[in-house]
Amino acid sequence: MMENFLLQLFIFLAASAIAVPIAKRFGLGSVLGYLIAGIVIGPFGISLIHDVEEVMHLTEFGVVMMLFLVGLELKPSMLWQMRVPILGMGGMQVFVSSLIICGVTLCFLPWQQAVAIGLILSLSSTAIVLQTLKEKGLMNTAPGRSVFSVLLFQDLAVIPMLALLPLLATVALPNDGHHDSALIDISLLPGYQQFIATILAVGSIFLLGKFASRPIFRAIAATQVREIFVAAALALVVGISLLMTVVGLSPALGTFLAGVVLADSEYRHELESDIEPFKGLLLGVFFISIGASLNFALIGESALLIAGMTAGLIIIKWLVLVVTGFSFKMANSERTLFAIALAQGGEFAFVLFQFSKVNGVLPAATIEPFISSVAISMFLTPLMFMAYEKFAKRSNNESAQTRESDAIDPSKHKVILAGFGRLGTDLGRFLLSAGVKPVIVDHDAANVDVLRKLGFKVYYGDITRLDLLEAAGAAEAEVLVITIGEIAKSRDLIELAQKHFPHLKVVVNAHDRQAAFQLMDFPVSTIRRETFGSALSLGQDTLQVLGVDPYEAHRLVRIFKKNDEEMMPELYQLQNEEDRYIARYQEKHADLETLMKRDLESGTSALDLAWTAKNPEL
Amino acid sequence: MKKILINFAHPAKRRSKINAALRDAIADLDGVTVNDLYSQYPDFHIDVQREQCLCENHDVIVFQHPFYWYSTPAILKEWQDLVLEHGWAYGSAGKALEGKLVFQALTAGGDASTYQPQGFNEFTIAELTSPYRATAKLCNMHWLPPFAVMGVHRELADEKVQANAEDYRRLMMAIRDDRFDVSQAAQSPLLNHQLDNLIRRP
């Protein structure tokens, strides 16, 4: 049994490890890679896996996690701003698509079944579309946001659909009653109690996220045991899904809500980086199982019917989306992407078809070809994205001026500030005053709380971890500012950043000259010695109090500073050659001696040359 | 009594003799404010509000400086660029400097004969200081020719330095006490050219 499980696991993982890099290599994107891997290892390929439906059902949880992550990136205020596209565009797309598909289906099937199919097929694939948009970096563009709004509305629409579908039952149920919930069956309760339970469930998510999450996460973070935080994050997502299932709501919606509530939390990046790999893996396996579930025998038998249904599905949805785009006054390029992105059936269709079968709405024979065409339409989506990109590139070249610039999301930060202690505080204040909003990451939970109370955007976490660095936006950021006190940690972080994000410019603080030498091993943009600036400022003040002309004192400091900075590379060289057995204090002393000698040599001669006319008494 | 603002600009005061003497001659006078720009703003970060306030509180504005490269030390240009704002110094709403007297007090290396069309420097002091004259016109100020100590490259004797300093002090007192013939001075090539004729006896 165990052996069998491990074998299956191995097949899934190995298939992704082989197929995804190959697909990416050919520019197909990871989603298509997973799908192809699924076909290859599926019952119609080399037939390595069984129980595809079970696997699919299990890994649907990836979608739930994905919505949690999407929620984390959406603040409540932002969600409120998007209410028009969500309700307007989403509502129009779902309603009109359902109506037309229902109308077409009505020519072949009774009205109850037509309505059910219309509703089910109006949904698109959140998993494939969001994954592809993210991969192509389109999430924060105008069409990306419109697409997301519609998908969000669809996820909401699943809930009333689940309630509505059983009312359309026409087929005699194969078995009477069903028991879905493992804990309590809420459907046994009277109507008003069901309603109260639902409200309580949603309310508790809100309250938990708003008030209880912070102290809980703080306590967990204080243990400094990494996997406990991961466990807590997973428990949160799983727990909410469970709660939602019990009250009969969509788990995806529940975790999305939890994500939104936690979007303002300082633990957001930590949660994101903890959940992300699980989500990625589950979704990957989910895509594989979609690929594997393509019933080629059926497709082969009724090739024409399924091809027609698939084409019809895509064309109807595409047309509705184009009209929606027009009525919301989208720009040409925006509308094209919007319509292509959502013109497919979604993974919810599998769930809902299954649900309809169980509830006697649709007979199995009717469902089979529909499931195939939904799967094919999902398979075609990444290909359509590729076609769009080719087309967009060409039309871009033709009319570079007509393309509208993407709306720049003001929340996109260009600077990551690692460490927010003594030095980071003033630095952060300064950057904020200059209009640069850095993503601030600090490892001291208490520090983070205080600073957040002061209105800073500070996140808790260990920035020397790759996943957190990534979650902080290292891929899009331009500059990484390091104000960590520990030199070893600074070095680790620089090494990590330069290995994985070579584009990132690094500006780093060194607490003294020795630390600066250690940082000079890396090609970083700027190294500042933390006490050097203060030392020189105090020196300038001293001269002024002694009665030296302020401008002269200022110039002396500048000359000294310039000399010192010019000396650093040379001293660094010396440092590396010196016998490493020399005691540290001796080393320091020698260092100082060299410095002082050079100071005396170059000293104030530069000052004497300035403004000297033939007669210096001018 | 007129109030006089001396905007003093010298980047190397330690080595200055003549400018220092001129400055010392007037620093203690009632009604005269010396504003040492290089000391006030060693990093060139000029406090525009403070400077505008000083200008508004004085009737006469003097720019005292060595004549570097036929012009002023760098900070005076920065001062002009920042302080003379549109809507304050000029423009339809810029009346803050209207009617105030303005002139330069400068020390130049070459003597007067070099600042002639036939001389070594080819241009007259009046020509070379014309940007200040144009600036004064734009700001509706009353422009006067410069007070110029010339030929300082040929080490001026101490008595000569003293005499110039004394002239400078007399000029400032006369302007302050309204004993200065402004309209006649405007016709003169330099303020210290026949200074006695421009100052009325009390």
From TrEMBL, chain A:
Its main location: membrane. GO terms for cellular component: endomembrane system; plasma membrane. It is found in: Endomembrane system. The keyword Transport applies. Keywords: Antiport, Cell membrane, Ion transport, Membrane, Potassium, Potassium transport, Transmembrane, Transmembrane helix, Transport. The keyword Ion transport applies. GO terms for biological process: proton transmembrane transport. Belongs to the monovalent cation:proton antiporter 2 (CPA2) transporter (TC 2.A.37) family. PANTHER family: K(+) EFFLUX ANTIPORTER 3, CHLOROPLASTIC (PTHR46157). This is Potassium transporter. It comes from Shewanella gelidii.
Automatic annotation (TrEMBL), chain B:
This is NAD(P)H oxidoreductase. Signal peptide: none annotated. Residues 2-170 form the Flavodoxin-like fold domain. Pfam families: Flavodoxin_2. Keywords: Oxidoreductase. Gene3D superfamilies: 3.40.50.360. InterPro entries: Flavodoxin_fold, Flavoprotein-like_sf, KefG/KefF. One of its GO terms (molecular function) is FMN binding.
